[in-house]
């Protein structure tokens, strides 16, 4: 099992688990947040993706307060 992380342009993050032994088929990962193609593959290994972070659940970038 190979684990890797992929990130969509919109900021959503996915954890990919690719099997080295199970047969799968070529395909692509569509972002559940924005619908873009995040990743496409031509290999015949089984791949499973899980969304680990959605942009609207991410911590907001907080600007530091101005110094006095
Ligand atoms: Zn996206």
Describe the structure.
- The chain is mainly β and 68 residues long.
- It has one domain (2-54).
- The protein has no helices and 5 strands.
- The chain has strands at 2-7, 13-23, 27-30, 37-41, 45-53.
- The strands form 2 sheets. A 3-stranded antiparallel beta sheet has the order 1-2-5, with no helix packed on it. The chain has a two-stranded antiparallel ribbon with strand order 3-4.
- Strand 1 (2-7) and strand 2 form a beta hairpin.
- The radius of gyration is 16 Å and the shape is elongated.
- The N and C termini lie far apart (53 Å).
- The site of zinc ion has 7 residues, from loops.
Task: Give the gist of this structure.
This protein has 68 residues and is mainly β.
Write the layout of secondary structure elements.
Blueprint (H helix, E strand, L loop, with lengths): L1 E6 L5 E11 L3 E4 L6 E5 L3 E9 L15
The structure holds zinc ion (ZN).
Task: Give descriptors for this structure.
binds zinc ion; elongated; two-stranded antiparallel sheet; three-stranded antiparallel β-sheet; 68 residues; 5 strands; mainly beta
Say how many strands there are: 5
**Largest pleated sheet:** 3 strands, antiparallel
- Termini separation comes to 53 Å
Order of helices and strands: EEEEE
What ranges have pLDDT less than 50 throughout 5 or more consecutive residues? Answer: none
Overall structural domain count? 1
- Rg value: 16 Å
- Overall form: elongated
Strand order of the largest sheet: 1-2-5
Global mean pLDDT: 91
Total of DSSP H or I helical runs spanning 4+ residues = 0
Q: Give the distinct bound molecules.
A: zinc ion
Q: Which structural class is indicated by helix and strand composition?
A: mainly beta
Fraction of residues in helices? Answer: under 10%
């Amino acid at each position: 099992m190979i684990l890797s992380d992929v990130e969509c342009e919109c900021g959503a993050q996915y954890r990919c688990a690719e099997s080295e032994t199970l047969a799968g088929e070529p395909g692509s990962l569509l972002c559940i947040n924005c619908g873009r193609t995040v990743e496409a593959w031509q290999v015949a290994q089984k791949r499973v993706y899980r969304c680990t972070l959605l942009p609207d659940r991410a911590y907001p970038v907080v600007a530091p307060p101005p110094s006095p």
